[in-house]
Design a protein that fits this description.
By secondary structure, the protein is of the alpha/beta class. It folds into two domains: 10-173, Rossmann fold; 243-257 and 266-324, no CATH class. The chain is built from 14 helices and six strands. The chain has helices at residues 10-20, 35-43, 54-68, 80-84, 86-94, 122-125, 141-153, 172-183, 189-205, 248-252, 267-270, 275-281, 292-298, 317-324; strands at 25-28, 47-50, 72-76, 99-105, 131-134, 160-165. α3 runs parallel beside α5. The longest helix has 17 residues, at 189-205. The N and C termini lie far apart (87 Å). Residues 226-239 have a biased composition (Pro residues). Residues 8-121 form the Thiamine pyrophosphate enzyme N-terminal TPP-binding domain. Residues 213-244 are annotated as: Disordered.
Length: 327
């Protein structure tokens, strides 16, 4: 009998990390932004204690940390939930108490766009904690909780805040359906661009998460085989050529015609290079020859070598001088 893979969403990852560190209590004021964390923690035997406001939740987590030595955990909702916890966070910071604060946040695609309880939480919370972690991908939730426990205990103990957007905590199928409904089915260009943007955004959110317990195989898109444009196609050999370049080496010497029927990039293939033949013929006197013209300019013994025609290429210095001269 084939066993079904275990489905783990973002809330399950956070709950599993809390249980692995021996957390017994999570203090909270229930909210929709953090509901998956509370559900997953309760399923793993962690006691969920609901209080009357967010400051009380952090105060209680601070007390647990001082009494047990295990970092206390509090979970508060986004926006006003986090702002209400600032006083208790500052108290834990001054008392050097290790506290883990799990804060909710608006969906990642709607942050800064006026979503429900959406505010810029980092500037408000960061001065009162040792580290503020902003999560953008599902696969980072578990490692972030692990790092938060290490940071809260290391050196001078103190509080750590993890911002968990709501669309990272629910299961992938629900989030994909939610974004698909938000994108609509319009055929206008703006609607298509919106669907493309949201599709890529969701792919980045769940990249490497492997909800089924296995890492997904990334399917590579096949490139369409298209013929190259006309300006990239090589001309047939029978096409007449015009220009004053003797070789591709002459092109490196900046001898370019003012007008040419062929694209500049294919001139090297149209004119065969005679540099090797010239080197072979004049190897005794010319040591650093790159082309016929540069060889004539740098020849060590122009009287003995460059005044006569090269037997390998049948190109004389008169032809080279004529080619190099401007018209």
């Amino acid at each position: 009998m084939k066993m079904e893979p275990i489905v783990m969403h973002g809330g399950d990852r956070v709950g599993a990390a809390l249980a692995a560190h021996g957390v017994r209590f999570v203090f909270t004021l229930c909210g929709g932004h953090i509901s998956p964390i509370l559900t997953a923690s309760k399923a793993r035997g962690i006691r969920i204690i609901d209080v009357r406001d967010e400051a009380t939740a952090v105060f209680a987590a601070d007390a647990v940390a001082r009494l047990t030595g295990v970092p206390g955990v509090a979970a508060v909702t986004a926006g006003p939930g986090l702002t209400n916890a600032i006083t208790a966070l500052k108290n834990a910071q001054l008392a050097q108490s290790p506290v883990i604060l799990l804060g909710g946040a608006a969906p990642t695609a709607l942050q800064g766009r006026g979503a429900l309880q959406d505010i810029d939480q980092r500037p408000l919370i960061e001065p009162h904690v040792k580290r503020f972690m902003k999560i953008r991908r599902v696969r980072d939730l578990g490692p972030a909780v692990e790092a938060a426990f290490a940071v809260a205990r290391a050196g001078v103990p103190g509080p750590v805040c993890i911002e968990c957007p709501v669309d990272l905590l629910y299961d992938e199928a629900s989030i994909r359906q939610w974004y698909a409904d938000a994108a609509g089915k319009g055929t206008a260009i703006a609607d298509r661009l919106l669907r493309f943007y949201l599709h890529r955004h969701v792919e980045k959110m769940f990249a490497g998460s492997a909800e089924s317990g296995r890492r997904r195989r990334c399917a590579k898109s096949r490139l369409r085989s298209r013929p190259p444009p006309a300006w990239k196609q090589r001309p047939p050999p029978s096409q007449p050529l015009s220009g004053r370049c003797l070789s591709s080496a002459a092109r490196r010497c900046r001898l370019r015609p003012r007008r040419h029927a062929l694209p500049q990039r294919w001139r090297s293939s149209a004119f065969p290079c005679t540099c090797r033949a010239w080197r072979a013929a004049c190897s005794g006197a010319i040591t650093r020859c790159r082309c016929a013209i540069s060889a004539a300019r740098r020849c060590a013994n122009p009287t003995a070598c460059c005044s006569r025609a090269c037997p390998a290429t049948s190109v004389s210095t008169t032809a080279v001088t004529y080619a190099a001269a401007p018209r």
